[in-house]
From TrEMBL:
<feature type="domain" description="Lon N-terminal">
    <location>
        <begin position="12"/>
        <end position="205"/>
    </location>
</feature>
<keyword id="KW-0378">Hydrolase</keyword>
<dbReference type="InterPro" id="IPR003111">
    <property type="entry name" value="Lon_prtase_N"/>
</dbReference>
<dbReference type="InterPro" id="IPR003593">
    <property type="entry name" value="AAA+_ATPase"/>
</dbReference>
<feature type="coiled-coil region">
    <location>
        <begin position="200"/>
        <end position="248"/>
    </location>
</feature>
<feature type="domain" description="Lon proteolytic">
    <location>
        <begin position="604"/>
        <end position="677"/>
    </location>
</feature>
<dbReference type="InterPro" id="IPR014721">
    <property type="entry name" value="Ribsml_uS5_D2-typ_fold_subgr"/>
</dbReference>
<dbReference type="InterPro" id="IPR027065">
    <property type="entry name" value="Lon_Prtase"/>
</dbReference>
<dbReference type="Pfam" id="PF00004">
    <property type="entry name" value="AAA"/>
</dbReference>
<dbReference type="GO" id="GO:0004176">
    <property type="term" value="F:ATP-dependent peptidase activity"/>
</dbReference>
<dbReference type="GO" id="GO:0004252">
    <property type="term" value="F:serine-type endopeptidase activity"/>
</dbReference>
<keyword id="KW-0175">Coiled coil</keyword>
<protein>
    <recommendedName>
        <fullName>endopeptidase La</fullName>
        <ecNumber>3.4.21.53</ecNumber>
    </recommendedName>
</protein>
<dbReference type="InterPro" id="IPR003959">
    <property type="entry name" value="ATPase_AAA_core"/>
</dbReference>
<dbReference type="Pfam" id="PF22667">
    <property type="entry name" value="Lon_lid"/>
</dbReference>
<dbReference type="Pfam" id="PF02190">
    <property type="entry name" value="LON_substr_bdg"/>
</dbReference>
<dbReference type="InterPro" id="IPR054594">
    <property type="entry name" value="Lon_lid"/>
</dbReference>
Amino acid sequence: MTSEIQPVRKVLPLIPLRNVVLFPSVETSLFFGRKESTQALLHAFDNTNKLVIITAQRHSNVEKPEAKDLYTVGVVAKIEHVLQSDGSLHAIVRGLSRVNIVNLVQHEPFLTAEFVDLPVISESVTDIQQAAEALLSQLKKAFALGRQFDLPAMMQLSTGVSSSDLADQVCFAVDAKVPEKQSLLETLLVSQRLKGATELLLQEMKVAELERSIEEKTQEKFNVHMKKNVLEERKRQIDKELKKLGQREEGENDDLEKRIKKAKMPPTIKKKLLKELNRLNEMGSMSPESSYIRTYLETILDLPWGKYSSTKVSLPKSEKILDDDHYGLKDVKERILEYLAVLQLKNKSKPNPDSISSANILCFIGPPGVGKTSIGKSIANALNRKFIRASLGGIRDEAEIRGHRRTYVGAMPGRIVKGLKDAGSLDPVFMLDEVDKIGADYRGDPSAALLETLDPEQNKDFTDHYLDFPLDLSKVFFILTGNDISTIPYALRDRLEIINFAGYTLEEKFHIAKKYLIKKQLLANGLSPKNTTEIKDKTLKYVIDKYTREAGVRELERVIARLFRKVAKKIVTTKVKQINLNDPVIIKKFLGPEKFSSQLKGKKDEIGVSTGLAWTSVGGDILFIEVNIMPGKGNLILTGKLGSVMKESCRAALSYVRSQAKNFGITQNFHKVDVHI
């Protein structure tokens, strides 16, 4: 036979509160003026435990409450500090736990109550967590609307405050009626208390939003004419005082206003700038924001509004420029001339430069040193436009393309806007170099920012974050370059017309060196044709074949430069006036031993050896494939850093031999031997 354990009854002084409901875990400051309350407070404070029961009155107008006038659920509180002033007491109390008031023991000289502790009811942790998250979410919204709470629990969230304490502190802090708060004080389930606190907070936010809406509407009805007069008079007085102090001179921003009105920018942008200028005029020159606004205005005014290059295109002249600047590249030149022909026809049908735009974005893909960047300069010369180049290799921040928002310290426009500013026109040839080497991280993906920039349908309204208004890029001739098309994102690649640059052949390198590089390096190294014998074709081809192995001509140019530096040193140190560079001995002395050698086909066929063809970035080569067989278990061993295609070819060859073994007169014991290729 079992019996329920009866809760222990305790006795403490009781203090009733009017219009206040105290909760556990809340520390607050209270004023006590009634005689009974002050006596109970001092009695408890003089006691060792400093404990007192605090409960709310049902009706605030009752001066001497009886049991029927008090709520039966209250809080045991500890008195932390007491200060006496003008007949009343100011005390700091801290709520400890919920209690149920059983009855009042005495009424004089102060109330004393018999009480029992209310039990803690266990419940689902999941329910508590969900309710707590909902309350925290509502609190964040309240903070965003400007609501301030003095909540220790909110300050201690990172240290793991309990959900029960959070609910109690929010219930105490919100603006609600006593019965609503008392109902939550009497709620023992933490999840229900959290939900109730969320409802009270939501209700308070709705009231605050309504009050703010009413206030805004009332403010709008204020006499606009009177407000304008007051502000203008205040501005005149401020300007007058600043002039006396020497902090502002008359018309210091007049130059900006003249430039804004004179600029050939769209009316909407001009209106925005004049609004910013008015803000600048209304603040003192010592204001930190004034320098930001001035920089913003000057940056926009420095853009080449309404300035375009001459769009007259002469196809024969353009072809001559391309041929003079670059040898070979017939397919590339042909595609560029096609573009220029289309542009010339557009000029005839639509002479207004505002109607001329770049229909396609060209992307040059090829190995380093084949002339991708330099041919972009030639295109600019052929079009009679300014040439701007921006290297995108290694950038990881989207702001490099779109710019930083003005709210950031040190904000600046992106590379596109900077390029237009440097070009001095709104239709330059704009080369974005190394587009295949763009990175991405937590700051954004620059290649995604390029999508709008390079889309002919969208770049009429390109928006730089710093400018914060649309900028027309449709007249800009964009050219992209890269080495590896596979690393360019598909969405970006889809907007581009790919033009592939193949590596130069030996013959093309020979003509490039003879026509351009030798003359350039003679001049760069202080030499003249009199200092060296004319380099024969055979010597030049020997240098190209034995000392360079590349797709472009950069290494070849470095080799020629090295050769001429040796000549310069020889002339200075030995007083010799001319060096014969057609002597192989001198070439090897100046450049060292041969770095590369070409494989030659075997003079006679050998068993177990065949000749293969290999592709390289500089053309083709041959290689010898040797095969050995040895006792084993039928394994195929492949060595020599073979690629997947070569491995498949080896397996296919072995399969063919096995299938035709009878025709070839080969003993079919493949499972007893290993083949090593």
